[in-house]
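Attaching the record inline, Q. Sequence:
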Amino acid sequence: MSAQVWLIFCTACAILFALPSPISFKVASYAAIRGKRGFTASIMGATLGIVTTVTAASIFVTGAEFLPSSFLEVVQWAGTGWLMLFSLWTIATPAAREANADNDNLRGKSFGSIFADCFILAALRLRYFGFFIAFLLQFLNGTRNVIEMVLQMQAVVLLVALVCLCAQASFARFTIASVRRMSATKKVRNPRRTHFIAGRAVTAGYRRIAA
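Structure, as predicted:
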């Protein structure tokens, strides 16, 4: 790939991992509460979990290389549509669904448990899995060895994810505050549900008065 394409790929990965997310929140929380042990274990676990997700996505992308060119073009357009939905989903979804308080309420205690907790969270992020399938599909053109290209992209993802997570863990308090602020601004109450509950409460009140 050309230098411009590699720049686009690196920029997209940097934006993806720099955005406030449950992974960055978890890593920052361990770094802030568990100290150096949590800093190292959480970064290693989250980074390897992300690479695992990319590796799984790469298997599907490698298989897509054997599809007919006309069908592959349709799949790539579908991937473009998914990337657009992914962007809207990321903007509209709260970044932290289970925001821990500033106390010792994290699952991991030892190095291994912290590593496993962050690894599982990152490896099971279906949103990242779908993103990398759709994103890597855009670079298939049949002009070079797809396996070599995917391996190079995995190395880039590993490096970018490591840098972003280290930065988020180094400024843990800022990361936690950013995630919570982003989550708070995204929480929108459902007016229909509120009206339904209020209506039920009023109805129950009238029934008690009538009785």
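Residues 3-210 form one domain. Residues 188-198, 201-211 have pLDDT under 50 and may be disordered.

More tomorrow.
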